[in-house]
Amino acid sequence: MPVLCGKCHSASAEVHIPYAKLSLCPKCFLDFYVRRVKGAVEDFGMFKEDDVVGVAVSGGKDSAALLHALRQAYPNLKVVALHVNLGIPKYSAHCQAKVEELTKMLDVELHVFNIVKELGIRISDFRKTVFRKKVCSACGTVKRHVFEDLARKAGVDVLATGHNLDDVAGVMFNNFFYGRWDQLVRLKPVLPPLAEGFASKVKPLIRISENENLLYCLYGDVPFREIDCPYSSGTGVRKRAEILEILSRDNPYFRHQVLNRFLELIPLLENVVSKPALVKCQVCGFPSSSDVCAFCKRVALVKKALGKG
Ligand SMILES: [Zn+2]
Ligand SMILES: [Zn+2]
Fold this sequence. Notes:
Layout: E1 15-17, E2 22-24, H1 26-43, E3 52-56, H2 61-73, E4 78-85, H3 91-106, E5 109-114, H4 115-119, H5 135-153, E6 158-160, H6 165-177, H7 181-185, E7 190-191, E8 200-202, H8 210-219, H9 237-240, H10 242-248, H11 254-270, E9 279-280, E10 287-288, H12 294-305
The chain binds zinc ion (2 copies).
């Protein structure tokens, strides 16, 4: 005897949501997911209905689910998709093709920044620099900068990213252990603009697990990348958050609890964490804590290694 869906009581249940004590059919799961995204947007005041919302889409399941769910939740919202092509052989072309398929399907305008064309470098080139073992870290800096730039050029008020519950709770835990309070504070669901003319940043999937994003894409026929980044193995949040995995085994609500406790802590931390004074980067003009911003330093490093500097 199949278990019936706890919502519609007609179709058979395929997804069990332990923290909500619910078993749902695929259709009711999709509705449940969209309502959860909408709930986070509203609880944290992420954007207003007349804002232009830019979604940073990588081609991965999280940001693909985010863009799709925002279209379902807010059909009249002006949404644009932003994508960075990292110039990683095979991988980047595959990611961009998935993003194009998704945005075409949803009828969403797409803005692409190709770092090979625009900057004359590839993420792979970081292997020729001191970042050879930390390509992901350099890539993160490049992406954060380029998304800010793309958002500004596309007239975006609010930049939404696909950070999920597992990412955020894992990084929060990690920053806590190492006492990186300034970085912990940056994991808030809503971050104000860097400066006048920049977008605020929001994380609408902050309460949704990686697995729920995957199920949303599979049940909703949402296209997402099928290959992994050649540089991602052995790094990233997954490894660092193993302790969360262990602690979550007996308590499916554990990650939500971690998130909620840190969200209570952050306003208290903000009062004591000193914010660096910002100046304008001498190269690109972005707000920066030093004369040349981290992005421009990294680009210069690669160009030097390539003999273009
Ligand atoms: Zn159902
Ligand atoms: Zn700069």
